[in-house]
Amino acid sequence: MKKISIVISVLAVSLFACTKDKNEVADLQQSELILNYLVDSYGFNSIDIQETETGFIVENDTEFPKENFWENYAKDAPSQLLFPAGPGVEERRHRKHSYLVTSGNPVVVNVRPGVPPSWVYAILTAISEWNALDGGLKFVFTSTDRNLWNAVNIVMDPTVPADKIALTMYPLSDGRPGNVMRINPAYNSMSSSRKKFSMVHELGHAIGFRHTDTYEGLPLFTSGSCANSSDPYSVMRSVVKDWSGFTSCDVYGFYTLYP
Ligand SMILES: [Zn+2]
What we know:
Number of strands: 10
Shape: globular
Number of domains: 1
Bound molecules: zinc ion
Radius of gyration: 21 Å
Number of helices: 6
Distance between the termini: 76 Å
Oligomer: single chain
CATH architecture: 3-Layer(aba) Sandwich
Strand content: 5-15%
């Protein structure tokens, strides 16, 4: 009897080991497929993509979670490669993500428990700044103890890489805003002005803005002064700075995205 149970347990261990290996292989294949898709369909440069256990970080502070990637980010995405990137200041223009928010207006910003008051204040003032533009999309603040399906859910997360203030998802293929924003608590002592800039910027990502100082993403304008000028004070540039308001091209970009 003892012999049989040993045989069974050895068998169970080897079965388990075998299953685990298969899962690891499947995860690797899945990661490679997603990586290829981000490069081929979204036009991201593969050396700018950083893989984590749960997702892919692109353009420094936006993230594509692996979970439900194909449902959320690969449904009828317009190819971003129609607008090839090139170096030069003339390429520094406002850019948009493939999907925009269509799932409801205003966009609900749901602050989860654990977000310090200084960040909550920054979020509230960021919402006020976007809403003061009086564009075709508004934000509304709420705070609950659970993630909401159709909202930008904001949490503190110490696992955000050390060099990143926050990570935000882009809008999903079903028209919901970027579903999660994770703030790095290592930046809790950053100035209130920078916190505000950061939150205005991250909410911009959640509704589909990409960076103005990279060469990735669909250009918002193809003519006019905002199409070809460098915009060094744009809130959608990739480096955080003190809040000094939206630029005229930020505002024009918002009205273009959400008339
Ligand atoms: Zn950003």
